[in-house]
Amino acid sequence: MASVGLIFATSAQAAAPARDQTGAPASLPAGIDPAIFQAQVQLDRAGFAPGIIDGKHGRFFVAALKAFQEARGLEQSGVLDAASRKALASERAPTLIRMVLRAQALEAPFTPDIPSRIVDQASLPFLGYRNLLEKLSERFHTSSDTLLQLNPGLKTPRAGMELLLPGLIPSDRVYDPGLPARWRDMLSDLNISASQPRAARIIVSKSQSVLRVLDAQGRLIAQFPATTGSDHDPLPLGQWRVRTTAFMPTYHYNPDLFWDADSSDQKAQLSAGPNNPVGVVWIDLDKPHYGIHGTPEPSLIGRSQSHGCIRLSNWDAARLAQMLQADTPAEFVA
Prior knowledge:
22% of the residues lie in helices and 19% in strands. By secondary structure, it is an alpha+beta fold. Strand 4 and strand 5 form a beta hairpin. The protein starts with 5 loop residues before the first strand and ends with a strand.
């Protein structure tokens, strides 16, 4: 974890937070529901992404819970009932962890000034995180606002500061040595476990705004919130296949492919980085110009429109990429 500049606190430095009768942390700030927050962390760890972890009840939390219930053979109610709590608790991972901020985290290279126009971003050598808060938000699958609620001191971060964070540290970081070192570092930075199930097929649902992952027996093994096109560039329904995966991709901007491009825009190539328009990974499909990719704006997943491609959070796109191989079928449904 040296690349992020965090270390686990010792038990003497940080006692476990108090818990309520459901087992959820009882010491969360007002506005963060402890039971929802705990379930979001558990769902994320299980591969059923609830969207941004923020302790709030929303449609992607319900969608993730229904998918988890389906995968575990439970009633698909979308309600956090006793049976669902018991199944979610099977991994016994902590909901919250305490970590200490190192000086090197404050000294990491950031990209604080990213222009809003794509063509202007082409002048930057790397489209990295703007600041430490944004980087930590992505690493722990949450938002800057939620991190500040948990850690008000992050407004002015300093070395030695103790942080309260979602319990998403993976148990396995032994990534495939055949992967590029830069990609292995990013997987670690995004808290993606090296152990992922193998996808036999994926299904993208326009109406539900989710991407579902099935195994060779047709069982649901993962689900991620997704942006699935727009009125002008609708999701191309039908049967497709994964071709290749590009890690930490550059982005080739062609205004001729965008109906809303400025008339003065010229073709441009943007450097790699988590704030690249396609995020940290591009999963290419056999339909020209279409793919599944990350985004620098995870809060807009399912709330904004894309130019036809399937957009996931960077952390979900990175996880999905570890499940896929060339020629995996991809079905797009209404």
